[in-house]
């Protein structure tokens, strides 16, 4: 019985990990699309539009994932950088708090 329950737990864990990877790739693709749209608007109008609520929600999810993975993220630096400039122009390490 113990073998089957361990196998079941490992299988569920593997499925959850694969789903998280797929969701992460989808999320990154959406953020890239949002960024490209903002780049296009900036090119046409000369001013960069504010990040809409949907994009902000996805970015918050990314931030939450980084924090749940144990990364110590400087949220103020994260939001200032992605809001003012582009979305995720730097690697995760850029946003991490240096001790």
TrEMBL record:
Full protein name: Uncharacterized protein
């Amino acid at each position: 019985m113990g073998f089957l329950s361990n196998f079941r737990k490992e299988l569920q864990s593997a499925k959850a990990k694969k789903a998280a990877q797929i969701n992460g790739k989808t999320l990154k693709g959406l953020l890239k699309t949002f960024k490209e749209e903002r780049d296009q608007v900036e090119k046409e109008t000369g001013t960069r539009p504010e990040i809409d609520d949907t994009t902000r929600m996805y970015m918050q999810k990314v931030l939450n994932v980084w924090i749940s993975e144990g990364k110590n993220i400087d949220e103020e630096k994260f939001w200032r950088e992605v809001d003012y400039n582009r979305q995720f122009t730097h690697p995760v390490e850029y946003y991490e708090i240096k001790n």
